[in-house]
From TrEMBL:
Gene, per the UniProt record: holA
Domain of life of the source: Bacteria
EC nos: 2.7.7.7
Coiled coil (residue ranges): none
Keywords, in A-Z order: DNA replication, DNA-directed DNA polymerase, Nucleotidyltransferase, Transferase
Residue ranges of domain DNA polymerase III delta subunit-like C-terminal in the record: 221-341
Domain DNA polymerase III delta N-terminal: 19-141
Organism: Romboutsia sedimentorum
UniProt KW Nucleotidyltransferase keyword: yes
GO molecular function, one term: DNA-directed DNA polymerase activity
Catalysed reaction equations from the record: DNA(n) + a 2'-deoxyribonucleoside 5'-triphosphate = DNA(n+1) + diphosphate
Cited Gene3D superfamilies: 1.10.8.60, 1.20.272.10, P-loop containing nucleotide triphosphate hydrolases
Pfam families reported for this sequence: DNA_pol3_delta, DNA_pol3_delta_C
Protein name: DNA polymerase III subunit delta
Length: 347
């Protein structure tokens, strides 16, 4: 059964007794939880929806929640997130606890729907995983197939009231690289890009390849590389020009801060690995980043000491707090970053 069929069944209130959804595509997992919630009587949801932290719960608490009958609704939904027995860990549970829970799955009340959620991989060798698969549904929320991705992307642009042809949808998907084997992009990342492009063109306006190129994440990443290069070269005017262009094209200040911080963390990691004798190629493999990114980080490491990078990261962290609490204007915080670190020796 594919993801679409599962969601269709849930919306039609055709439920299994127990489910396990796992994987790296958190967007699909969160959407599944939402569909389960929407199936309940909204006025009684506080009584009939239990969301349990699987890392903290005890067996008796979990069983008590499962056995509690729904209140003024046909069903009760119990969502257990990151349950350790599904990941091959036994910090809080004994072998007898695991056996007891497995046996209990045969006696779940018909009015209870038990949903296990794991953000990441599960240990498929575990008896609990095998039992859930036998009794209900186990589904890996992995990347969408090419066709499903196309349909999903088209629908998102349409929801934003942006006009886009099929050719441009394919171009957008190709540019984002979501289906690349080494890509860590998620549907949430793609949705952010779709929202940014839709906002830029405005309602009932057409999305072109030129606009996709102008706002693509690849361009943003290249702009971040350039920005850090200019800061390293103490070229304040060009650094400010890059910043202004990025903000004009719709990038948020907090987003820019996050990308700067991420790149500086990569710079520190590649320098460490280089000292250990690794080549640019093996560094890219170890960090699971593109060789081009590894190469750029190695060059940038020549312009920044570890102490300065830590100082910049601390500044970004403090600025994030101040911006969110209204203590400083976001654009001013960015301008101060550029000004401060372009006026001092950074090597």
């Amino acid at each position: 059964m594919n993801y679409k069929d599962i969601i269709t069944n849930l919306k039609n209130k055709k439920f299994e007794n127990v489910y396990l959804f796992y994987g790296r595509e958190y967007y699909l997992i969160e959407n599944t939880i939402k569909v389960f919630k929407d199936s309940l009587n909204e006025g009684m949801i506080d009584f009939n929806l239990d969301i349990i932290d699987g890392k903290e719960t005890a067996l008796d608490q979990l069983i008590s929640s499962i056995e509690t009958l729904p209140f003024m609704d046909d069903r009760k939904i119990v969502v257990v997130k990151d349950f350790e027995l599904l990941k091959g860990k036994k910090k809080n549970f004994s072998d007898s606890d695991e056996k007891s829970l497995i046996e209990h799955l045969d006696n779940i009340p018909e009015s209870t729907i038990l949903v296990f959620i794991v953000y990441g991989d599960v240990d498929k060798r575990k008896s609990l995983v095998k039992k859930i698969d036998k009794k209900g549904i186990v589904f890996n929320c992995d990347k969408l197939s090419d066709m499903d991705l196309f349909k999903w992307t088209k629908k998102k642009f349409e929801t934003n009231d942006a006009i886009i042809e099929n050719t441009q949808i394919m171009y957008f998907i190709d540019q984002e690289g979501y289906r690349d084997k080494s890509s860590e992009k998620t549907l949430s990342d793609l949705e952010n890009e779709i929202n940014k492009i839709s906002s830029f063109v405005g309602k009932q306006n057409k999305v072109t390849n030129e606009i996709i190129d102008k706002l693509s994440q690849k361009k943003v990443e290249n702009d971040i590389f350039k920005l850090i290069d200019y800061i390293g070269e103490q070229n304040a005017s060009n650094a400010m020009r890059i910043l202004n262009d990025m903000m004009h094209e719709g990038e948020s200040v907090l987003g820019i801060f996050a990308m700067i911080a991420r790149q500086f963390k990569v710079v520190m990691q590649v320098r460490q690995l280089q000292v250990q004798g690794h080549t640019s190629k093996t560094i890219a493999e170890k960090l699971k980043i593109h060789p081009f990114v590894a190469g750029k980080a190695l060059k940038q490491s020549n312009n920044f000491s570890d102490n300065i990078i830590v100082e910049i990261l601390n500044y970004i962290l403090e600025s994030d707090y101040k911006i969110k609490n209204g203590l400083v204007r976001d654009t001013l915080a960015l301008e101060i970053l550029v000004s401060k670190y372009c006026q001092r020796k950074i090597s």
